[in-house]
Amino acid sequence: MDAVSRHQILFNEGVRTGDFGPWLETFHTDAVATFTGLPIGPFQGRDALAKAYAEHPPTSEMRVLSSTVDGDAVTARFVWVNAPMTGGRFTIRLRGDRLSSLDVVLDAPPPPSVGARGGHLDAGQRAGRPKAGRPEPRGRHRAG
Asked: Element (H or E) spanning 91, and its range?
């Protein structure tokens, strides 16, 4: 299985089940992940990425539209299954058969949270406003 297919399949499995462990195992322990279009990251190391996905799990599966290979980097265009007019691109870099980096650039915000599982930050939170019905935290800033 190619790296993009593996990435998509295991990511989507994590969204469906809430268990991102198999997806996270495809990253080197010292991998770096960056996200443009979300107020999170960058994350240094698989453990930091695991913590971020546990605290803010994605709420939509993705569908890869196309991909290109350039040396050790693979860039893929994707859309969110729950909001197919939105998406972006991700670039993964491989060291052996594991990811050494993941760079995600969103064209538009991901779909808002659905249900009680948490999820990525909604549009108000991305703009620095607290979620409706929740008081603004005092003291330190709280993401999500």
From this structure: strand 83-95
Domain span holding position 50? 3-126
Query: Does the pLDDT of residue 133 top 90, yes or no?
Result: no
CA neighbor of 71 nearest in space, from 104, 95, 89: 95
Domain-located, residue 85: yes
Q: Scanning the structure block, which residue is given the tokens 């064209």?
A: 107
**How far apart (Å, rounded) are the C-alpha atoms in residues 115 and 122?**
13
Q: How far is CA 57 from CA 12, 64, 66, 117, 129, in A?
A: 11, 19, 24, 7, 20
Asked if residue 87 lies in contact with residue 79, where contact means CB atoms within 8 angstroms, the answer is: yes
Q: Report whether pLDDT(141) > 90.
A: no
Domain assignment present for 139: no
What's the pTM? 0.76
**Chain centroid to CA 100: how far?**
15
- The structural domain count of the chain equals 1
Quick one: average pLDDT of 123-142? 35
What percentage of the chain has pLDDT greater than the value 70?
Answer: 77
Beta strands in the chain (DSSP E): 27-36, 43-44, 62-70, 73-80, 83-95, 98-106
Query: 13, 55, 11, 35: which is closest to 107 by C-alpha?
Result: 35
